[in-house]
Automatic annotation (TrEMBL):
Residues 2-243 form the ABC transporter domain. One of its GO terms (cellular component) is membrane protein complex. SUPFAM superfamilies: P-loop containing nucleoside triphosphate hydrolases (SSF52540). It is found in: Cell inner membrane. This is ABC transporter related. InterPro entries: AAA+_ATPase (IPR003593), ABC3_permease_C (IPR003838), ABC_transporter-like_ATP-bd (IPR003439), ABC_transporter-like_CS (IPR017871), MacB-like_ATP-bd (IPR017911), MacB_PCD (IPR025857), Macrolide_Exporter_MacB (IPR050250), P-loop_NTPase (IPR027417). PROSITE patterns: ABC_TRANSPORTER_1, ABC_TRANSPORTER_2. The chain crosses the membrane at residues 278-301, 539-567, 588-621, 627-649. Belongs to the ABC-4 integral membrane protein family. GO terms for biological process: response to antibiotic. One of its GO terms (molecular function) is transmembrane transporter activity. Its main location: membrane.
Amino acid sequence: MISLRHIERAYRKGTLNITALRDIDLEIADGEFLAIMGPSGSGKSTLLHLLGCLDRPTGGEYLLDGADVTTLNDAELSRIRNQKIGFVFQAFNLLPQHSVEENIAAPFLYAPSNTFTPSQTKQTVHALAEGVGLHQRLLHRPTELSGGEMQRVAIARALVMRPRMILADEPTGNLDSRTGEEIMALLAALHQQGHTLVVVTHEPRIAAFAQRVLHLKDGAIERIETRETPPLDAAEPYPGQPCSDMAVRGTVQPRLAFLASMLRVATQGVLLHKLRSLLSVLGIVFGVGAIIAMLAIGAGAKQELLEQIALLGTNTMTIKAAPQLEAPLERGAAQRSEGLTEGDADRLAQVSPFIQAIAPVRLLALPTQYQQQFTQADVIGTTTPYLQSGNLSLQSGRFLTDSDLAEASRVCVIGDDIRQALFAFRNPVGELIKIRNEWFQVVGVLSNKQFNLKKQTSLQVRNVNRQVIIPLSTAVMFIPPQERQRIQEIAIRVDDARNVDAAARLIRSALNRIHYGAQDYELVIPRELLRQSQQTQRVFNIVMGSIAGISLLVGGIGIMNIMLATVTERTREIGIRRAIGASQRMILLQFLIETLTLTLVGGVLGIALGVGGAWLITAFARWRTVIAFDTILIACGVSAVTGLIFGLYPASQAARKHPIAALRYE
Ligand SMILES: Nc1ncnc2c1ncn2[C@@H]1O[C@H](COP(=O)(O)OP(=O)(O)OP(=O)(O)O)[C@@H](O)[C@H]1O
């Protein structure tokens, strides 16, 4: 079964070359019981580790079931350790955070998926625990067991995958002589049931059980003693059967059970060190919190703006009279330009085929009065098309007509707030109100449009509800003669939202011509405002994003630091897992899962912080915030990516640990 030819194992320490094993030629038959003896430092453990595929020889050939083990990769060697070999160590090497049951079942985590069903696994574990006399202690932790009991658990674990070979390194070394004898009786029973048994020992009493005793000296075979039949009878029945042959090559995919177990280990780790975990994820918490708050504020602002744009209409635009610029060149042009006038509106109506409605607007803030009620109103002098170009609708009565304009009638259409302020529950249509000192008849009431103060300031939208609309021709009575030419705005509605840009280009070039290039007007396009506000938003996002980025970076480094410490702390555990069949990839995965769990915990706390922060911002600063589902997804994604980035290095450090060095780590 096993054939070693000219095996050599040398270690390099600086310039020093230590040869732990030299020219070892050895055949071990199936079902044999071999003891390895020799003085301290003679290479016994090194030979056992080579036999157990925990280490590779630096020279020679190792044939296991005919296959040359020295050519196999890490995954293949791990699979051999998992399936063909069971280890029993002097220091027991149980996983401290797991129960007896979980310790015995641990090798299943690293086995190919089709080896056993969960119920078979449970059955096997329970039968083995009973076989070694520990069925009452299945839920206990290793720390709650005696040395002898721990070694029994280790033996049950070594047998769980039904390996053909059991390798024991001074299995009774840490036990008193009576317990040691019980353990040896257990091992002898295994041998009698057909297992190949190789035991490293100092004690001739233990070696006496073996069929052959290999004596090592200075790394070489000194002699091999062959014995008669072993003197001790098997004491206890062993429930399992030696496993059948398996293919040596091929890798094992991590199974669901493995992932679930690793997740449990990770969660246990987080819960065990609550404060440490919390402190290490603080950076992630603040980073994710900042991202959530940033996205919530951005989404809130955008939603608010979109609502305003919907109020204004996506196919409307406004030309506003702008204060004249002071640059000398501009001033020349400005002197020739008449500013924004009624004539501009007439000319623009002709130049752009896309314009559906166009209305000049004169703005006046005047007091209005109905009987004993007074209120300040935005009085607007305009023309009939304003109903369309101002995106308005009526709740009662009618809008201004062409004859109102032609006759400069004293009629008005009022907004809903004005209606409430002056008329409360009465019907205003037909009633007379006083604007400054002139009487006007109310002919219509505009539909209410939801406005709040903040919306007005961000887009400078006038509150429709506070308007009193009168004919443009009538409005001149409130204006001194020298200013009657000028108007403040032209409200335009384009036939289709898709034509807004084309119309804007035509309007600009026409106005530039009419105004001799003077920039005494401003074209306000609601759709463009969205673009502009997104630019402002971008600056805000850069600031918040930088805060989030720095927090995540610091948080990530914090987590990496903790994970590096954890890896060092758990070096021994890594060695144990490697011995029972974990490949490098699986160790890598385990520590990545642990880091991910930690960062996701940070992510969840960060989400809570972000949501709470957004709520506070809305409550105190009155900014609208919106937390969308994708915001939460982004936050989870960010914390997971941070975990992956910063967890990869500690995890690869863990995976790179040499199994022997890890097992020997104190
Ligand atoms: N990682 C290593 N680096 C350098 N030298 C090593 C290493 N591991 C083992 N050695 C050396 O190899 C030799 C054999 O060591 P090994 O542990 O196999 O001896 P042993 O017979 O099992 O001893 P003991 O009975 O004390 O456990 C020793 O001289 C030891 O110092």
